[in-house]
Amino acid sequence: MSEETSRIKLRVFRTNYNKSDSPYFDEFDVSVKRWTTVLDALLDAKCYSDSSLGIRYSCRMASCGSCGMKINGKPRLACYTKISELNDQTIVCEPLPNFPRIRDLVTDFTQFFAHHKKIEPYIQNKDVSTEVTEKDELTEYKQTPEEVDNYLQFSYCIKCGLCYSACPTVATDSKFPGPQALSQAYRYLADNRDDGGSTRFKIIDERHGIWRCHFAGSCSNVCPKGVDPALGIQLLKGHLMGVSKHDKKVASMRTKDE
Amino acid sequence: MPLLTLRESQIMKIHYLTGIGALFFVAIHILFRLIMPFGQSLEYENVVANYNNVYYVILLELMLIFISIHGFNGLRVILLELKQTPWWESIITILVLAAMIGVIAYGTRTIIIGSGL
Hints:
The complex is a heterodimer of chains A (258) and B (117). Chain A folds into two domains: 6-107, Ubiquitin-like (UB roll) (Roll); 110-241, Orthogonal Bundle (Fumarate Reductase Iron-sulfur Protein, Chain B, domain 2). Chain A is α+β, with helices and mostly antiparallel strands and 258 residues long. In chain A, a hairpin with a 2-residue loop joins strand 3 and strand 4 (74-77). In chain A, the strands form two sheets. A five-stranded mixed β-sheet of chain A has the order 2-1-5-3-4. In chain A, strands 6-7 form a two-stranded antiparallel ribbon. Helices cover 30% and strands 14% of the residues of chain A. Chain A is elongated. Chain A has ten helices and seven strands. The termini of chain A are far apart. Chain B is mainly α and 117 residues long. Chain B has one domain (2-115): Up-down Bundle (3 helical TM bundles of succinate and fumarate reductases). Chain B has five helices and no strands. Chain B has helices spanning 8-33, 38-41, 44-51, 54-80, 86-115. In chain B, helix 4 runs antiparallel to helix 5. The longest helix of chain B is centred in the last third of the chain and has 30 residues, at 86-115. The two termini of chain B are 33 Å apart. The mean pLDDT of chain B is 91. The chains are: A alpha+beta (258), B mainly alpha (117).
């Protein structure tokens, strides 16, 4: 059965910051089908019209978070956005706002990852060694499904940077960690295998830290994985204010007999 | 200076509590205006009479302190986002703190003179 095809106009932001070129928009006519994604259309343009088009992508299934860009004015994943759902004959692709630009649709994630790294996004537990040399030293935590539910949605983050690009505070304050890093701080606070909460509190409780979030909520609005960073930030604020309890019981380790 | 070394969560706790407190005191202040027709409550004799009521004077002073702390910290938060250098953070905090103390001192002086204490 043949699928109906239609033609759309793809307007793509073009520039090369290393050559101090003035930015401009290139237009490509692309043939699309019902299931064609924006990434498919961009790759079509790259293959058959202009091979110099700069795009970053990898998995094509919303798992790697590489192809984030502003599509028709909203930060989205190109591989996860179908042309048909945009209901427009002209698709405008621009690089993600709040990120330094490199070339065309490719942005620099250095600062974004630095913020992520700063909140120490890994399980910290003073009872467990992080350096494991022998197999016998490997340990396993005991967690109930309810305890997993406390942080599960925040662990779906793929670090695509869409929330960071939508955040109005990040736009004005480069020291602000952004919704991704802050929601990950909450993710580890809610995880009962971790006991590094006080360390992370010190990191985020500073002049340009969590309190600069004005709860615009645009981060949650653009997340392609259904994570609600704004919720995580508010819950984290509750813990810092002392209105939420954080007397979690750190998960016990499975013994060799179990 | 201990005030400059407060953690941001401690400052924001003060910010939220003074905001809630200010809302409460302003509500009482408005209710005071409603015990007589609004226009009449603003007549010279009635305004001066208010200053002779010790409870009203305490209310005015609390309103002044709470609104000043909340408002000037709000201003500090806005100004902090303009630049991200330690120098800017310190200068803004000191200036805003000085302005807040100035406004509270001047307002307190007015209340004391008005009440004839």
